[in-house]
Structure formats: structure tokens, C-alpha cells
Amino acid sequence: MASGYGEILRARYATRLLAGTLVGRLPNATAAIGIVLFVRAEGGSYSLAGALAAVYGVATAVGQPLLGRLVDLHGQPRVMLPAAVVSGLGMAAFAFTGPDTLLAAYAAMVVAGLFTPPLEGGLRALWPDVLRKESQVHTAYAMDAVAQEVMFTVGPLLVTGLVSLWSASAALLVVNAIGVLGALSVVVSRPSRAWRSAPREAHWLGALRSPGLLALLGAFLFVGTALGAITVAGVSYADGHGGDAVYGWMMAALGLGALVGGTVYGARQWSGAPERRLVLLVALLAVCYVPLVLMPGAVGMVALTGLAGVFLAPALACAFIVVDRHAPRGTVTEAFSWLVTTFTVGTSVGTAAGGPVVEWAGTRWGFAVPGLAGAAALLVLVCTGRAFASAGVGPVVAGSSENDRNGAAEPGFSAGHRA
Questions:
Q1: Per-residue pLDDT, 288
Q2: Residue 141 and residue 339: Cα distance in Å, rounded?
């Protein structure tokens, strides 16, 4: 296992690109907690903090595929670095003006979210050029999914540490400055500067004209919904079983389960079509959500929450491969950004739906939402089986920068409509 990941990290530029991307995404990973802590420190209400964080999240979801399309058209440095700077300036304006001037606060959140650079999709577009071998790229996708879990664990700790040692406004400024430096590290690297998307067919739908990609996005909307519902139901459970400490352990277990699952998944070479493998992984993910409704004692619940996370990172890693296979030529960054957007929207929907369910029907029904959402994700993949399974692409990786590296016809399209 260690040798497989070590081989990836020893590849030229691989460690720099992975680290730079994770650091560059730090502002986005910590935005919600940073916004809430800052608004509360300035005397604002929880409602205002939640509304501002929601506006930031919606703006990010809108901006990712739009910026991803611009990256495919104009390259990474011309889009990502200016976007990172503008996003950082938006959050800096919020830190300096505070939440009292509502119009300015909401405008700052829109700017900061809308211009969040699509570093996540950009990294996945770069892996084939950096690693060359298909097996290495698949391992890198798994390592990418695992690294996200680490970032979403370390990031909030960094923010809360800065708040306690300095101030909430300083935390916003420092984290976003670090994010700009991370983006800069990526875009000045040789792979980022040299990367070019394949020629693309002019089409207003862009990546969304792929039926297989639409099926994948529909499924991961529900996967995100399940994750968002767990976070809300977990709060309700912890209120009656030990408070914040238990909730913290549950969320840590969720991340640890995903980290362990992703690490083990990426250490093995998998054969067969990734679309079939993803259906199995989503099915296992849905099954592991079901025991949460048992609501045992705190120790047992932490264990069940860890189990619920085991197949999340493997499902994401497999989804990255599927995106690369189904994205129409010249749309790879946009396609990956759509996956980020869909997952983010799904998480927001799960969070929004989980609250009323817990309030009206109780915590147990709150934990039933993830199981139902997981079943819905599996149902989407099964019902769209023909479009989802027909990638129409040969080997995923070769020595070029195109996502369709064999010049094969786009999935679901005739050769006459090839980009």
C-alpha cells in the first residue's frame, strides 16, 4: 500500500500539485465555520451567520462549473490565479467591513464564493499528464479523495486555533491569504502552465451534454444529501447523549472511516468497468447508512458513523474515473467541477431537509434520511444503466492532455458529432 502511494508522490510535480491544491482549497473548506465564528464574534445572530454561509455555498456551486469551462477554454493560470485573488479579496472585504452592513456582507459572500478557483477539478485534469500510467492515475484519484478528508479535518482546527490565538477576522484573512499562495503554487508549475484541454465542440451545455455524466451527477446529488443529513441528525443525537464532545467524535469517525476506506481502495489495482464498480460502491454506501437508525449508545454510534464513511472516499475516487471517461472532449475541468457543485448542492439539501425532519419526526427519522438518499443514488445509477455504462472510450490515459485520449467518439454521440 505504501509503495503504491509512494510511487505517486515520487513522480515529478505530484507532491507539489497535491499539496498546492489542498492548501488552495483551504478557504473553501473552512468558509462555513469561519463565517459563523466571525459573525458571532461581531455580535451577529446565528440566522445571519447561516444565511451568509448559505449564500457563499450557493455562489460557489454556481461558480465552479463556469470557471471550469473557462479553464478548459483558456488554460489554468489565466483563470485560477485571478479567481483566487478576487475570491480572497471578497472575503477580506467581509472581514474588514463586518456583517453589520448587510448588502455589503452578502455581496462579499457572492464574490468570494463565485470566484472560488476550481482547483479540485484542475488537479484531476492534470494527473494524467503528470503520471502517464492509467493505474497510477486511478491510485492518484483515491489519494486525492483521502487527502480531502484530511483537509476537512485539519482545516477547521486551523481556523479555531487562529480564532483563539488571534481573532475571527484574522482567521478569515490568514486562511484566504494561504489559499491564494496555494493556488499560485499550482498555476506557476510546469504541468499547469503547459496543460491544454482538447479541442471542444461549441455547445451551450458543455459537459452536461453527456448522458452518462448526467446520471453520475444525479446519483451524487443524493450522496451529498445523505452526508448533509448525517451532520444534522448527529447534532440532535449528541444533544441527548453527551453533547458536543460526542458530536465531534461522530464527525471525526465519519472522516476517519472515509480515510481508511479510500486508502485501502487506492492501494489495489481494480479490473473491470469502473461504472459497474461504482454501482457496487454506492450500494455498499447506502447499506452502511441504514444501521444509523439503530441509535445505540455513544460508543456504538461513533462506530456506526465510522462505518457509514468507509465507502464514501472509494465511491468518490471511482466517480473521478467515471467523469474522465464520460466527459465530452475538451470539457474535463468543467465536468469535474460539475461533480463538485452537485455534491455541494446535495449536501446543502441534506442539511436543509434534515432539520425539519428531526424537528417534526425525531432523531431516528433524521438518520433514516441518509439511507433513503443512498437508495435513491443507487436507483439513479440502475435506472440510467445503459447511458451510464456506455463510456465509448478506450484506455483513460495516454501521453496527451486530452480527456478523450484515443480520439474516440463521445459517449452517447455518433462519430459525426465528435468534438
A1: 96
A2: 14
Distance CA 140, CA 266 (A): 8
Q: What cell numbers appear for 118 in the block?
A: 476550481
Whole-number Å distance between alpha carbons of 346 and 343: 5
Reported as type and span, the H/E element at residue 231 is helix 211-239
For 144, half-sphere exposure in the C-beta direction (CA atoms, 13 angstrom radius) is 30
Residues 285-295: pLDDT tens digits? 999 999 999 99
Which residue's entry shows cell 484573512?
173
d(CA 259, CA 147): 8
For residue 397, name the pLDDT band (cuts at 50, 70, 90): very low
- Alpha-carbon span 147 to 263, nearest angstrom: 10
In contact, 315 and 281? CB cutoff 8 Å: yes
- Residues 120/121/126/128 CA torsion (nearest 10 deg): 110
C-alpha cell at 45: 445572530
Which residues 6+ apart lie within 8 Å of 3 measured at CB?
A: none
Cα distance between residue 371 and residue 179, in whole Å: 35
Report how far residue 67's alpha carbon sits from residue 79's, in angstroms, rounded to the nearest whole number. 7
DSSP H/E element including 155: helix 134-165
Of 155, 351, 146, 157, nearest in space to 255 by CA: 146
